[in-house]
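hey can u check if this looks right to u? its 89 residues, i copy pasted from the old doc so theres a chance i mangled smth
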Amino acid sequence: MSEKTKIKSPKVVKPKNTKVKSDTPLAPKDDGEVNYFRGAWRELKRVRWPDRKATWSLTFAVILFSLFFAGLILGLDYIFEALFRKVII
């Protein structure tokens, strides 16, 4: 290979100081509970909440799946109960 076609890998620079500075927003502070709720509030502001249409469609999907699995469990329970009554009794 010639020098022009040779691919050089990027130089990796390691940080000298790996300690977290106290003025960064991710560093723990002395007021633990207050800092926790401030962080939680900041995270809630970043959430992309679904609109009303998406909320209703997801609610409908959860209700349908719940009814389906409830019917499946009830059906299997009925079948196994009938089988055990014939075999055991």
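The helical segments are 32-46, 52-88.
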